[in-house]
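Quick illustration for those who missed Monday's session on complexes.
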Amino acid sequence: MQKKIIALQELSKNLWWSWDTEAKQIFEELSPLLWERNNHNPIELLRQISDDELVARCNFDFGEKIDRVYSRFTAYLNENNTWAANNTPELVKNPVAYFSAEFGIHESVRIYSGGLGVLAGDHLKSASDLGINFVGITLFYREGYFRQHLNHEGWQIEDYPLQHPENLPVEKVTRADGKDVIISVNIAQSEVFAQIWKLKVGRATLYLLDTNINANESHYRDICCRVYGGDQNMRINQEILLGIGGVKLLNQLNIEPAVYHMNEGHSAFLTLELLAQEHSKGVAKQQAIDNVKSRCVFTTHTPVPAGHDRFSRDMMHYTFDKYLARIDMSFNDMMLLGSEDKEDTHGLFTMTVLALTLSRSANGVSKLHGEVSRNMWQHLYPEKTVAEVPIGHITNGVHGSTWACGYTEQFWKNFTDDIDEMTFSREATEAVLAKISDEELWALRYNLKRNLIDFIDRYLANQLFHQHQHVGFLQNDYYAMQSGTNTLSPDVLTIGFARRFATYKRAPLIFRDLGRLDRIINHPIRPMQIVFAGKAHPHDDAGKDYIRQIIDHSRRPQFAGKVIFLENYNLGIAKRMVSGVDVWLNTPVRPMEASGTSGEKTVLHGGLNFSVLDGWWPEAYNGENGFSIGNGESFENHEEQDSFDAEKMYSTLENQIVPSFYERNENNIPVKWIKKIRNAIATIAPEYNTHRMVRDYATRYYLNRKEN
Ligand SMILES: *Cc1c(COP(=O)(O)O)cnc(C)c1O
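Prediction with pyridoxal-5'-phosphate bound:
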């Protein structure tokens, strides 16, 4: 009896539950209301339910289910016959140490901002599934990224609720004698201390560095306050803690990584600490560099020069003064490692240059991004042609079980015992698809869309109430407005657009010609509806203005109730949107989307991508498995680019997407549409997932084989 409660408690403390449909169901069924209200956090949920209730219900409501989930969980943790054991046994012995400034694992653990973090979280989960010995390193942001509200003018308001460790699946790392493990880093003239937390994600462990301790002055405690918050000074402090602090934490815990993986340049200072350790062993300068290089790999994510972290020479001097004295490295030697111009170290220190200089291999995150990166960094390799620049690519994917978890996974399980096999081969996926009728796929689509629309109804009621209460809205006005606000229908072609509101993603592009959009949305027999969500960075007023514009448009009479903006985009909203919509829209300015992953999430739900040929899409798009906006045309002039892409978007909607969605056979099934869905699942699901991606990293980058 008590055993079942202990099992539930234990399950709540390993984020494995977040990609197990049945485990999630247990938590949700305990109290759907508390589950929703606590942001799907099982630790908070369990705390709010009395032992009496748990005892009573665990026995009768959930008895077998808990046992079944728990034994699946322990079997998972103890499995020895994994992909890694069979293919990369080297990576079972010593861990891969994966450094990332953010990890998006679940919406209840708010230590991520957007795609980079979600990618890191999905990477961690697949590494665990594949049996790779894997540790992640990041910071414990007590306020996380902000929670987004909109005011009545449609302007984004940020607030930063605190995350308490006792509400998270984290555990303090302590020494054998029970005292906290503490590491320290030098920043300017100070010694800054950090305690360490660990968070279990299946078999993988994520370590979180935390400066929130009394030994630190308050401005150093703030290093672990917000994801990408603050100024350049905060930024460099966070990156020192992540890179240098991260290496020190691994040392303290006696973890000897097989390889250090830098996910984006934020963590590149780790190479300095590794160099320092070489120096302290008396290794000569060039040999030390070679040794460090042989242990590090680097993934770049930023296709525009301005997007890379750069620090001024003065800032570097001020911040690293004490550190350099300790590690026996001259300031100029350090500047040289991060300078784009090797003849002149008086310019900026670029984190990407440091990472490229001190890693044995580097990669971009899609084929196109690999090419763009080789062009962008060719000047660092004057003796090489662009094609020879040592930056390859591994295209990003998504974690299948996380993104299909729930109804969709159960749907697929009707047709296959091993949903994971669909992430391995096209043949296996096609064999599964062959067992499924068009009617079944169409029912899946309806179910998922209904689910999203019902959710939006509840969510919007709350959102609109908060949005307008400050301006003296009366309850009655609010209800009047609310009725007619969400008139979404599951019969209507539904477009989704949700991601960070970085301006290059051009969220408002579809509103360029309001008359034309009106005719598409309000077509008498073939209408369309659009759901938006996304956060702008708190310092990005242009991004916030994009949100405001969309809110404005959504209030025009012709769009009211048909164009919806959902506030506070996060992993939970993402899951609902990618599963519910028919078409996932993406409109970046090519080639600024290094990869993008959100479109990959929609595929197993039967969603189709409609995107500029940027990031992962030019690799995946075959003419039959979704839709493209244009053909990769580029213009110097922004206005021209926007006009061109908008025109292509409208004409593709009018001539291809809308007609094929509404073309039905005698049983009211859109046969051609479903054919596209099948093609998308067969060609995209087996390729654009993190199992494939992590296997590629393991065999091509983590194992130090010469051909790389
Ligand atoms: C997947 C995801 C992203 C990445 O979206 P892109 O369209 O690839 O930029 C960002 N935020 C959240 C919450 C996500 O789930």
